[in-house]
Amino acid sequence: MIDKNCPFCKILKEELPSSRIYEDENTLAFLDIWPQSDGHTLVILKKHYEYIYDVPDEEVADLYKVVKKVARAVKKSINAGGVSITQHNESAAG
After folding, report:
1. Distance of CA 55 to CAs 17, 39, 44, 60, 66, Å?
2. Residue 51 near residue 92, CB atoms below 8 Å
3. Residue 1 has pLDDT above 70, yes or no
4. Class of the 7-79 domain?
5. 39 within 8 A of 77, measured Cβ to Cβ
6. pLDDT single digits (tens) 31-51
7. Distance between CA atoms of residues 56 and 4, nearest Å
8. Residue 83: is its pLDDT beyond 70?
């Protein structure tokens, strides 16, 4: 499912530019356009979900396997001492 107003869906459809660093059948990882730190990368599912609570468990598991793979690659590529992995839901979460 694609949401025509979602900026991530627009990135998936290549309506907005992105620096893609990983892609498979279900996920896409790309560099943040307003990075908070070196290597700031977003990893998204190719199906649109409003909140993490809406994502089927098996898709969350697959997503976090990719998050782990991308985190390891980013850490190595920028020689980082560590990584932070965050996920926000709803406006109160930022």
Report:
1. 25, 26, 12, 6, 15
2. no
3. no
4. alpha beta
5. yes
6. 999 999 999 999 999 999 999
7. 22
8. yes
